[in-house]
Amino acid sequence: MKFTAEQIAGILEGTVVGDPNIEVFKLSKIEEGAQGSLTFLSNLKYTPYIYTTEASITIVNADFQPTKPISTTLIKVEDAYEGFTKLLEYYDRIKSLKTGIEQPSFISETVKVPDTAYIGAFAYIGNNVNIGENVKIYPNAFVGDNVTIGENTTIYPGGKVYSDCIIGKRCVINSGVIIGADGFGFAPNKEGSYSKIPQIGNVILEDEVDIGAGTTIDRATMGSTILRQGVKLDNQIQIAHNVEIGKNTVIAAQTGVAGSTKIGEHCQIGGQVGIAGHLTIGNNVKIQAQSGIGRNIKDNEVLQGSPAFGYGDFNKSYVYFKNLPKLAKTINELEKKVDGNN
């Protein structure tokens, strides 16, 4: 897909300085620019590259004035980084403008697929599934019985949504995601083994939830596991049964949240965090990477460590942690001196 400088300037409401008809068909870093590529300059430390780049078009800030000859065509906008991001979003929308049903795929006779939707090859759509307008279900995806998928939601290749789950509008479910697998429910029995507890609940994703690749969200034992509006999960995260995550909370990769824990709104949780079950995490909480949470957390706390405690206290304590060998040596020497004086 090719775009001219004039077309790009129109999308970004920018001004062309150079050849308005020059075309680009790929993106590049400014230091790696080649003919036919589009790049941008927003960080001043990369300014020298604009005089050597072979990129056909470069997006720059409106106040940029070259001090030497350049070969690249400029598109001047208010904010080059924001303009480049806007262009990426525009390109992504165009790239994903797929509609229709590819074959082979299985779609239950009880399902009505809107004309604006896309169902990829080898996808499976079960009974009584409700598919909204502009939904994209890519190849090898699985959608179980009685699932609802809101408009403009995308399920990427290999995504799995088990029966009875509810997916909101404008959600993104990346490859390898499993929504609605059984929660980890087992009870010890008289024989000394474990009996499985039926998991009869579901998972609810509200609008604008984004789930990273390889993440699993377990269905509730009863009721629902719920991710509120705007929640963003990174890759390879485990959300256990009956967990609730408040709106606009973000969680980084390899974090695990055990069953029935409630996480508040606008929280930021780092990678490899472990959160025990049946806890309540307040609003606006920040948890640093690799922390272990085993207690309830109040609003606005900032935590680090395992078990986690106050971020400021952790940093103060760390000064002593890393100097423990020296401190121990000093204490031993002082004890020897005291013993020698007695």
Number of helices: 4
* Integer-rounded radius of gyration: 27 Å
User: What share of residues is helical?
Assistant: 10-25%
Strand order of the largest sheet: 8-10-13-16-19-24-27-30-33-36-38-39
What is the first-to-last residue Cα distance?
Answer: 88 Å
Assembly of the depicted chains: single chain
Query: Major β-sheet, in short?
Result: 12 strands, mixed
Please give a structural write-up.
Helices cover 15% and strands 29% of the residues. The chain contains four helices and 39 strands. Strands 8-10-13-16-19-24-27-30-33-36-38-39 form a twelve-stranded mixed sheet. The N and C termini lie far apart (88 Å). The mean pLDDT is 94.
Outline of this structure?
By secondary structure, the protein is an alpha/beta fold. The chain has four helices and 39 strands. Helices cover 15% and strands 29% of the residues.
Q: What are the SSEs and their pairings?
A:
Blueprint: E1 3-4, H1 5-12, E2 15-17, E3 23-24, E4 26-27, E5 37-41, E6 57-61, E7 73-77, H2 80-95, E8 100-101, E9 106-107, E10 118-119, E11 124-125, E12 130-131, E13 136-137, E14 142-143, E15 148-149, E16 154-155, E17 160-161, E18 166-167, E19 172-173, E20 178-181, E21 186-188, E22 194-196, E23 202-205, E24 210-211, E25 216-218, E26 224-227, E27 232-233, E28 238-239, E29 244-245, E30 250-251, E31 256-257, E32 262-263, E33 268-269, E34 274-275, E35 280-281, E36 286-287, E37 292-293, E38 302-305, E39 308-310, H3 311-321, H4 324-341
Parallel strand pairs: 4-5, 5-6, 6-7, 8-10, 9-11, 10-13, 11-14, 12-15, 13-16, 14-17, 15-18, 16-19, 17-20, 18-23, 19-24, 20-25, 23-26, 24-27, 25-28, 26-29, 27-30, 28-31, 29-32, 30-33, 31-34, 32-35, 33-36, 34-37, 36-38
Antiparallel strand pairs: 1-3, 2-7, 21-22, 38-39
